[in-house]
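Please fill in the sequence for the structure shown.

STRUCTURE ENCODING:
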């Protein structure tokens, strides 16, 4: 751990230790925010989070955070929801729309079909596909002509019917149960939750709809361009839809939301620096550093995919993520050691994955 990280840890520890036994009152009992029952009792990451939250809600204490400033941001893929089932959800759904869906597939161009076939061949051969600019562009093309709500509903219907890489659940249930518990725990202590993901916003809203208690406006992702059905080649700044025209998603991406772009999204859409951040990859480190760079207490947690018995993670990433945590002062969350369950009882990796 570097000197700056050590200083952060020391400051937070001092804040917690300095909370008087009397004279300060917690706004609500700890139990009001729900208990972290799916976490091992002695898990260091659990203790760091509970200590932080206790200090944050203790009025008059040095770690107190006003309710208006209690903002927590979560990555989606690999942090709340599986990203290896056996591949990332966004490109998987692009392939289904482009090659499998009887209504949407005929709309796909030859070029987009070629991208879909290459994407499918990659995850079939390697067991994983990381989204690329090419597959993201194909993703946008595969939803062209649909509204945000139509994509959200299509994603939800498909995921709730599609089997994945696990026995005992469909793809739409592939949430990490301990992380959903963290969201409920934080909401119960007055934190506002935002999901900030590299997946497209319509897909992310579809994944989360009916599964996580979040309004759509709190889901931030990459965005396909929005167009009007009669717009043609006119630029958006120059065009006003006529009565009866639909406003739909276009064939191109307007924004990507990874790396430093996540900080841009947080600054522009939330307008406040978070005090808690949760992620699982290098793409989340800019969001982490932004969270830790404020004036008050803050923590960043990195989910480590180190449990090949219960989750189709990528063990190659484990060492790199632990090094990042040690170097920058991020708090590692070990799936293997810190969680009592990953997806809940009765779920197991499907044989042959």
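FILLED IN BY: designer on duty
SEQUENCE:
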């Amino acid at each position: 751990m570097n000197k700056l990280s050590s200083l952060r840890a020391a400051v937070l520890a001092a804040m917690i230790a300095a909370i008087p036994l009397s004279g300060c009152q917690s706004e609500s009992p700890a139990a009001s925010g729900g208990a972290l029952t799916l976490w091992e009792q002695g898990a260091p990451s659990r203790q760091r989070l509970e200590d932080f939250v206790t200090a944050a809600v203790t009025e008059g204490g040095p770690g107190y955070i006003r309710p208006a400033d209690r903002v927590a941001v979560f990555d989606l893929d690999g942090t709340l929801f599986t990203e290896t089932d056996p591949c990332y959800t966004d490109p998987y759904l692009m392939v289904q729309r482009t090659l499998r869906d009887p209504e949407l597939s005929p709309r796909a161009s030859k070029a987009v079909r070629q991208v879909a076939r290459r994407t499918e061949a990659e995850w079939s051969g390697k067991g994983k596909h990381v989204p690329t600019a090419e597959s993201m562009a194909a993703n946008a093309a595969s939803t062209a002509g649909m509204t945000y709500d139509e994509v959200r509903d299509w994603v939800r219907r498909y995921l709730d019917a599609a089997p994945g890489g696990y026995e005992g659940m469909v793809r739409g249930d592939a949430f990490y149960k301990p992380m959903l518990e963290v969201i409920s725990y934080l909401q119960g202590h007055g934190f506002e939750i935002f999901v900030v993901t590299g997946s497209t916003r319509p897909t992310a809203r579809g994944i989360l709809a009916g599964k996580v208690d979040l309004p759509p406006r709190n889901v931030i992702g990459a965005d396909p361009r929005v167009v009007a059905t009669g717009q043609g080649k006119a630029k958006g700044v120059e065009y006003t839809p006529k009565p009866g025209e639909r406003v739909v998603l276009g064939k191109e991406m307007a924004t990507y939301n990874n790396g430093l772009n996540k900080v841009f999204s947080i600054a522009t859409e939330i307008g406040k620096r978070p005090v808690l951040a949760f992620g699982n990859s290098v793409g989340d480190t800019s969001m982490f550093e932004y969270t830790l760079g404020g004036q008050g207490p803050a923590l960043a947690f990195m989910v480590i995919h180190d449990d090949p018995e219960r989750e189709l993670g990528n063990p190659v990433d484990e060492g790199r993520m632990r090094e990042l945590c040690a170097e920058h002062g991020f708090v590692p969350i070990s799936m293997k050691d810190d969680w009592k369950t990953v997806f809940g009882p009765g779920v197991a990796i499907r044989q042959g994955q």
